[in-house]
Amino acid sequence: MTINNLHKKFLLAALLFGSVFALLVPPFQSPDEQNHFFRAWQIADGNFFPKPTNQRLGGELPASLANLRDSFLFLKNNYAARTDFGKIITCLAKPLEPEKTKFIDFPNTAIYSPTAYLPQAAVIFLGKFFDAPPLVLMYFGRLANLLIWAILVAAAIKMLSFLRDIFLFLTLLPSSLVIAASLNADVLTNGLCFWIIAFFLKNAPAAA
Length: 208
Known about the structure:
Layout: H1 3-24, H2 33-44, E1 51-53, E2 56-62, H3 63-71, H4 85-92, E3 101-105, H5 107-110, H6 118-128, H7 134-159, H8 164-171, H9 174-180, H10 186-202, H11 204-207
Antiparallel strand pairs: 1-2, 2-3
Helix pairs in contact: 1-7, 2-6, 6-7, 7-10
């Protein structure tokens, strides 16, 4: 199998299986996903810095986002919990209502750099022009994250002349794909790390 074929096959497998995870993992069941969603939305609104209120960090966001989070709050950090498909369908139809806002705190993600949310924020920014419901944008944010991560890892695999099997094993693990197909800010960072490691390994034999 050639290097080019390998990176293309990785890209296909990552997008295929990652998309399954993006669509099947219930909303906000990935680690801290609700707070990553709020931070991405804040950045999409053009607010790059968090707002401190009553010694909490967060921002003024549509109240519908908090309502959406509350609908699935029982799933947080509970991987044995299950939700009803009908509940998801119902929430997919709930409108954004951007004029109704409230302060929402998300202190653990409010300090993250805006650059870590570029894929998610870009999708949210565009989706708001089409009046897309919040939950729809949550799913599209997951898919945008997955796409950027898969492209970065595929580029890393293409650069390598050795250790490609290790990269494939690590990145195609279900645990890796579940995170890559979430709103987590670490997705872009992880993809860049694979690319940077491959960039330096590319010249390792010549340097030796």
